[in-house]
Amino acid sequence: MLKKIFEVQLLSNNPDYEELKKCYYHGGEKYKEKLLSTEKFLRLIIKKEVYQINYKRRRRWRRTLRRK
User: Fold this and answer.
1) Cα dist. 17→27, 65, 66 in Å?
2) Which structural domain, as residue segments, surrounds residue 56?
3) Burial class (CB in 10 A: 0-12, 13-18, 19+), 17
4) How far is the C-alpha of 3 from the C-alpha of 9, rounded, in Å?
5) Residues 24/28/33/34 CA torsion (nearest 10 deg)
6) Per the structure, how many domains does the chain have?
7) Rounded to whole angstroms, how far apart are CA atoms 63 and 8?
């Protein structure tokens, strides 16, 4: 099943981040290495992870401003 998901995402022009997370979660280190060694997956992962980090920082900052 993971192999099929990975292959579909590999052939896709717009890989789905949630599907890639499934591959990593269920496939462990083997799929982690595959995901990170594929340039288009790596770009997508970095984009999503950086966005999530920045989103959390902005929320924390806004909460801090409201408390003052």
Assistant:
1) 15, 32, 33
2) 2-67
3) middle
4) 10
5) -60
6) 1
7) 41
- Mean pLDDT, the chain, whole residue set: 92
Which residue's entry shows tokens 């989103």?
55
- Determine the pLDDT at residue 68: 65
First to last CA, the chain: 51
Helices 17-36 and 2-11 pack at an angle, to 10 degrees, of 90
44-60 mean pLDDT: 90
Residues 6+ apart with CB under 8 A from 39: none
CB 9 within 8 A of CB 38: no
- CB distance 35 to 45 below 8 Å: yes
Nearest one of 50, 30, 49 to 6, comparing CA atoms: 30
Q: Could you identify the residue written with the tokens 């060694």? A: 37
